[in-house]
Known about the structure:
Helices cover about 85% and strands about 0% of the residues.
Amino acid sequence: MNNNSFVHLFTFSKTQLYILLAAFASTLPASFIKQYTKKPNNIWIFLSILSYLILIFTYIYLFKNKEISTIYPIIKICSIIMVICFGVLYLGETFTTTNFIGIILGITSIYLLSL
């Protein structure tokens, strides 16, 4: 694999970057509110509101340029994966086989609903 092929793997379109930003921004508020429940500090509430504002502006861009029925399920699937990773890796939550099966079924249902 030459350098150009490797760089091409990490080249994203503007829409793809906005999808990732929307998924990330939709993931953050839940994480910040979880932190607030552990250590009540208004910074967590402020960061949650800021994340929602970022999410609104990414939605505006994406829905203006793409079909909502295509983009929204992709954002939700990415968001689900990010929340799980954050919960397991950062918050030390457990992840069982039953959780895995449930998540796969949930992602499959979101995909099927978007068809």
